[in-house]
Design brief:
By secondary structure, the protein is of the alpha/beta class. The protein is 40% helix and 10% strand. It has eight helices and six strands. It starts with a helix and ends with a helix.
Length: 233
């Protein structure tokens, strides 16, 4: 990857971190960072929007919902420091796409191969439920981010919220109306171009993984399929 594109990705990351566009999200993410969970009382929370993370030459983009209040909102890296991330990075490691099955904090040496991880909303939302307007406010960041990742051909959507965000993103980038009827999210469901192919996966939240709605076998199968579609060998 060119040094110019590396610099531009870093510049975009800095801009994202400075965003204060959504008052409700700003208030919540900063409140959580002040009133820390007892288990992390001695840690300095990130408390800002969380930029994307991964391989700048990625062919596969993983799109989540939003940072977890005591996960990425604490550590400053997507899906890092919580149970969802534990489940997801272990699956990426089994697929040969992550250097480690563990993602605990920024600077821990974890690297991704051919994968970029980001979210439809960049700030931790109350009750883990961003609004549609907040998702729309984040759309320009997603447009610019994927524009700096020209190798991306497949977007793996972690949950229905991310699926809807990817549909809007693709429509915006291609300059075409949203499809009617709108394709519904399903685990393992696929939707071809334009721009990039979409594939759905249940979100690796504790609500899904602890109840067996999403198992290791299920996420491994979806990641394997996404890897094949993206041409990652």
């Amino acid at each position: 990857m060119s040094s110019d594109r590396t610099s531009t990705l870093e510049s975009l990351s800095a801009e994202i971190q400075a965003c204060r566009h959504c008052p409700r999200l700003v208030e919540w993410r900063e409140q959580v960072a002040r009133e820390r969970r007892a288990a992390f009382a001695d840690q300095q929370y990130w408390g800002r929007p969380v930029p994307g993370f991964g391989d700048p030459d990625a062919r596969l983009l993983l799109l989540g919902l939003a940072p977890a209040a005591h996960g990425a909102n604490r550590t400053g890296r997507m899906f890092t420091g919580d149970r969802s991330g534990d489940f997801l990075y272990a699956a990426l490691w089994r697929a040969g796409l992550a250097s480690s099955p563990v993602s605990e904090q920024r600077g821990d040496g974890l690297t991704l191969r051919g994968v970029w991880i980001t979210a439809a909303v960049r700030c931790a939302p109350p009750a883990n439920r961003p609004t549609l307007q907040e998702r729309a406010n984040c759309l320009p960041w997603s447009e610019r981010e994927i524009g700096l990742l020209p190798g991306v051909t497949v977007v793996l959507c972690l949950g229905a919220f991310a699926w809807e965000a990817a549909l809007v993103l693709r429509s915006t980038l291609a300059g075409i109306p949203l499809p009617r009827p709108r394709p519904r999210f399903s685990h393992g469901g696929e939707l071809p171009g334009p721009g990039f192919q979409m594939i759905g996966c249940y979100h690796p939240s504790q609500q899904n993984t602890f109840t067996g709605r999403l198992t290791e076998v299920m996420i491994d199968e979806v990641i394997a399929r996404a890897r094949t579609l993206a041409g990652l060998t």
